[in-house]
Amino acid sequence: MAESTAEAFGVPSWFTDFERMLREAKPDVVHVTTPPASHFVLAHAALESGAHVFVEKPITTRAAELDVLGALARSRGRMLVENQNYLFNRTFRELVRRLELGELGELVHVDVVLNLDALGSGSRYTEPAATNPFAALRGGLVADFITHLCSLAVRLVGPHRRAHALWRKRDSSTPLSSDELHALVDAERGTAALHFSASAQPDTFHVVAHGTRMRMVAGLFEPLVASERLHSGPRPLLPVRNGMVLAQAHARAAIGGLWLKLAGRPMALEGLAELVRRTYVAIRQESPPPISLGHLLAVHQLEETLLEQEVRS
Question: Which of 9, 57, 96, 242 could be disulfide-bonded to 147 (CB atoms 3.0-4.6 Å)?
Answer without folding.
Answer: 57
